[in-house]
Fold this sequence. Notes:
By secondary structure, the chain is an alpha+beta fold. It has helices at 62-66, 128-131, 140-147, 155-158, 187-195, 210-219, 272-279, 296-300; strands at 6-12, 21-25, 51-56, 197-203, 225-229, 238-240, 246-248, 253-254, 264-267, 283-286, 336-338, 371-373. The chain has 2 domains: 1-218 and 271-374, no CATH class; 222-268, no CATH class.
Amino acid sequence: MHAPRRVYAIAASVxxxxxxxxxxxxxxxxxxxxxxxxxxxxxSTATPIRHLVVIFQENVSFDHYFGTYPKAANTSGQxxxxxxxxxxxxxxxxxxxxxxxxxxxxxNPNKDAGGSQAxxxxxxxxxxxxxxxxxxxxxxxxxxxxxxxxxxDKFVTTVGTGSGHSxxxxxxxxxxxxxxxxxxxxxxIWNYAQRFAMNDNSFGTTFGPxxxxxxxxxSGNTGGVGKMINGADTDGDTVSDGQGGxxxxxxxxPYYDDCSTRDAASxxxxxxxxxxxxxxxxxxxxxxxxxxxxxxTAATGGTRTTSRSSTTPRRPTRTTCRPxxxxxxxxxxxRSATAPRSSTPPTTSTTPATSTHSWAPSRTAxxxxxxxxx
Length: 374
């Protein structure tokens, strides 16, 4: 597969939520000026963006969802037809194969344990075994071996899962790590790509699972580990950076999170949340739904007022305690957020863009309008 640690993200100027979402409000566009605070004050730019939302997944490659974008087979599943002016992206279908022959779809360098070529295969939405697939290995050492010094040809034999069974009882095949969905299965994600900006050249700076991926997204730096508890300093979650510090390489939980229950670590550098806080720009992180155990009032000691009222109607939602995004240091109090479920896609009054790490390989995105609450 061309770049299995290449990750996808879609930037949209609407408030939507998928498997993992970072959102910022009152973000100015075009001239880079910061939008003024207050619902009645709007940026004077040509195309003011009121909400910037980044949708991403970790542990799944870009090509797993966009390997043939914008062309779907349309032989099964939800029909998809791309707009005529859709630009090409850097994916399996548009990248030369071995020796410049064919593409990575038809002439891929990866081989199975028996030495046979392992070309990517479309996952058929009409086959439940293709929809609910086996989980693949995404540990730091295995991914490093899969890259094979840049040859990118050891994914089947190092990160492919060749034992056990999927959720529907189908035997796991190591070559499944090469396979991909198209717009007939992940239709919602492809529709977002059609309407907003997609980054097809976003690469993680390190190997590894969910936690390093999320930290990379918001900070671009997995070094500077601070506090470590419950074995995070000895169980392989962290390693020495060779300069007297420590880097995160595995799935430790966030040290400051209400929901952390096991090995956990904090990071000391700055992330995008710190920069948005410093600029007075509100933001939120949405990951499957969570209910903080600390209220906004308690977190601020009653010294800060709540945000302006949202124009989105508030309604209760059932949530479970799920990890929040990685605070790299003691968290600055901010607004909590809920994401009520909706069966209809969100709408936007702003002008959509024309032309961005992965979680559960076989889930498709759902849309949630976002509302901030005190």
